[in-house]
């Protein structure tokens, strides 16, 4: 969903300033997501290593990265050129230019806030315009049980989605629970269920294996993630659902505004589709809130 400029081709004769302007405009992880389909298997392995070490990439030498990825130095060099960088020195320059984005800091000028807000609004509008939103709602309405899964930064989104869906329909479960591993969470999943997997970047290893196991249960899988998970989405295929949701911004931290908007739209769609049954459930829950004096 993120609109990106076309990376400069290798060998283009440009000055250092021009090259840096191009590489800074599009983050290296977004470039990898955009170009991944065109990379060879070895280059994809090298790209995954870059993503895994994105936070401390500038501390490595190109040869060390190649060794970590289990590829040749020539493969690593080809990857850099495929992403629009002349060499690893230019990658380092790119990372230094983005250092302020990768570390917490305030905006330098409040005047930039309206532009940021407009960009966020555009991202949300693009994400919510995906036809797959309606498919995800249908899967959540039809499911016998709904299992919502998220790790690390994705867990907050998963927790909120579970809470919202539980207002509208019964039997919505959250995983992984404290002290549990995912094999236990999938033990009761089967055909007729839906598994919503939330996997934004900086996720733990193993997402691909979990998705494969979830598909194996016969459940419908809904994957909500940023473009870095596009390879996982391609492996799902029909009838599973891919909801692409960018989180990258020009601020110090990723933004989950679009992700939370997706949660609201999914829950609203489920409530609307369930009609009287959904409204009766909301009324029943509100009555319990009142009797238990749980909320103001």
Structural account:
With 296 residues, the chain is α/β, with parallel strands linked by helices. It folds into two domains: 16-102, Orthogonal Bundle (Arc Repressor Mutant, subunit A); 115-292, Glucose-6-phosphate isomerase like protein, domain 1 (Rossmann fold, 3-Layer(aba) Sandwich), CATH 3.40.50.10490. The chain is 54% helix and 8% strand. It contains 15 helices and five strands. It has helices at 16-25, 28-35, 41-52, 62-69, 73-82, 88-97, 99-102, 113-128, 132-142, 153-168, 182-185, 207-216, 230-236, 257-274, 276-292; strands spanning 146-150, 172-175, 194-198, 220-225, 241-244. A five-stranded parallel beta sheet has the order 2-1-3-4-5, sandwiched between helices. Strand 4, helix 13 (230-236) and strand 5 (241-244) form a beta-alpha-beta unit. Helix 14 (257-274) packs across helix 15. The longest helix is centred in the last third of the chain and has 18 residues, at 257-274. Residues 1-24 and 100-111 have low confidence and may be disordered.
Give a short overview.
The chain is built from 15 helices and 5 strands.
Approximate shape: elongated
Instruction: List the strand order in the largest sheet.
Output: 2-1-3-4-5
CATH fold group of the largest domain: Rossmann fold
**Head-to-tail CA distance between termini:** 39 Å
Biggest pleated-sheet summary: 5 strands, parallel
The top level CATH class name of the largest domain: Alpha Beta
Tell me the domain tally: 2
Percent of residues in helices comes to: 40-55%
Please name the fourth-level CATH homologous superfamily of the largest domain.
Glucose-6-phosphate isomerase like protein, domain 1
> Which structural class do the helices and strands define?
alpha/beta
Stretches where pLDDT is under 50 for at least 5 consecutive residues are 1-24, 100-111
- Please state the second-level CATH architecture of the largest domain: 3-Layer(aba) Sandwich
Query: Rg from C-alpha positions?
Result: 21 Å
Instruction: Compute the number of helices.
Output: 15
Number of strands: 5
């Amino acid at each position: 969903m993120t609109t990106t400029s076309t990376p400069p081709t290798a060998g283009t004769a440009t000055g250092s300033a021009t090259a840096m302007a191009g590489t800074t405009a599009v983050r290296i992880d977004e470039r990898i997501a955009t170009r991944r389909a065109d990379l060879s298997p070895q280059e994809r392995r090298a790209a995954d290593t870059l993503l895994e070490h994105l936070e401390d990439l500038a501390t490595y030498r190109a040869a060390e990265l190649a060794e970590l990825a289990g590829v040749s130095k020539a493969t690593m060099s080809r990857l850099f050129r495929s992403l629009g960088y002349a060499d690893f020195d230019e990658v380092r320059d790119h990372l230094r230019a983005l250092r302020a984005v990768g570390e917490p800091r305030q905006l330098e000028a409040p005047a930039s806030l309206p532009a940021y807000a407009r960009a966020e609004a555009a991202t949300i509008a693009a994400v919510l315009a995906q036809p797959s939103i309606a498919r995800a709602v249908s899967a959540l309405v039809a499911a016998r049980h709904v299992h919502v899964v998220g790790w690390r930064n994705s867990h907050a989104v998963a927790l909120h989605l579970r809470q919202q869906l539980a207002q509208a329909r019964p039997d919505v479960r959250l995983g992984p629970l404290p002290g549990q591993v995912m094999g236990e969470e999938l033990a009761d999943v089967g055909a007729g269920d839906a598994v919503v997997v939330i996997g934004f970047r900086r996720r733990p290893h193993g997402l691909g294996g979990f998705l494969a196991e979830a598909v194996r249960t016969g459940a419908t899988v809904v994957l909500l993630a940023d473009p870095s998970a596009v390879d996982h989405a391609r492996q799902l295929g029909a009838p599973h659902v891919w909801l692409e949701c960018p989180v990258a911004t020009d601020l110090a931290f990723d933004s989950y505004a679009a992700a939370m908007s997706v949660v609201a739209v999914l829950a609203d769609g489920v409530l609307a589709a369930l009609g009287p049954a959904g409204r009766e459930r909301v009324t029943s829950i509100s009555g319990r809130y009142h009797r238990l004096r749980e909320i103001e």
